[in-house]
């Protein structure tokens, strides 16, 4: 097999990947950190049912929560370390 075998494949580099929404960000971040919904809810200082609602897209997080979710998604290890005090509260 050589590079000519793929000449008929579409060039996918021209397509932009859409930015994940809060639901996707939460799920991907929890997976990266190996965190349960209950632990993630404590980390974000929200009820588990609220986190579940966000992940299941039943409702959307408010502005401050959205910003925190985005930061946690972009910098999971650093932000979770900063918020770890919420886990002991």
Shape, please? elongated
On the 0 to 100 scale, the average pLDDT is 89
Number of helices: 6
According to CATH, the fold-level topology is: 434 Repressor (Amino-terminal Domain)
Report the top-level CATH class.
Mainly Alpha
What is the domain total for the residues? 1
Distance between the termini: 58 Å
Q: How much beta, percentage-wise? A: under 5%
Helix/sheet category:
mainly alpha
Name given to the CATH homologous superfamily: lambda repressor-like DNA-binding domains
Number of strands: 0
- Proportion of residues in helical segments: 55-70%
Biggest beta sheet attributes? none
Radius of gyration equals: 18 Å
Q: Flag low-confidence runs.
A: none
N-to-C series of helices and strands: HHHHHH
Tell me which CATH architecture applies here: Orthogonal Bundle
Task: Describe this structure as you would to a colleague.
It is a single chain. Helix 1 packs across helix 4 (63-74), helix 2 packs across helix 3 (48-55) and helix 4 (63-74) packs across helix 5 (76-83). Helices cover 58% and strands 0% of the residues. By secondary structure, the protein is mostly helical. The protein has a single domain (18-88), classed as 434 Repressor (Amino-terminal Domain) (Orthogonal Bundle). The longest helix has 12 residues, at 22-33. The mean pLDDT is 89. It has helices at 22-33, 37-44, 48-55, 63-74, 76-83, 85-88. The protein contains 6 helices and no strands. The protein starts with 21 loop residues before the first helix and ends with a helix.
Structural descriptors:
89 residues; 6 helices; 58% helix; 434 Repressor (Amino-terminal Domain); mainly alpha
């Amino acid at each position: 097999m050589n590079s000519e075998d793929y000449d008929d494949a579409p060039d996918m580099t021209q397509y932009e990947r859409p930015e994940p929404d809060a639901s996707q960000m939460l799920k991907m971040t929890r997976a990266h950190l190996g965190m349960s919904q209950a632990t993630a809810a404590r980390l974000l200082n929200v009820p588990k049912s609220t986190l579940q609602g966000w992940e299941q897209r039943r409702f959307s997080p408010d502005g401050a929560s959205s910003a925190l979710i985005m930061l946690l998604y972009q910098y999971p290890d650093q932000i979770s370390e900063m918020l770890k005090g919420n886990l002991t509260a």
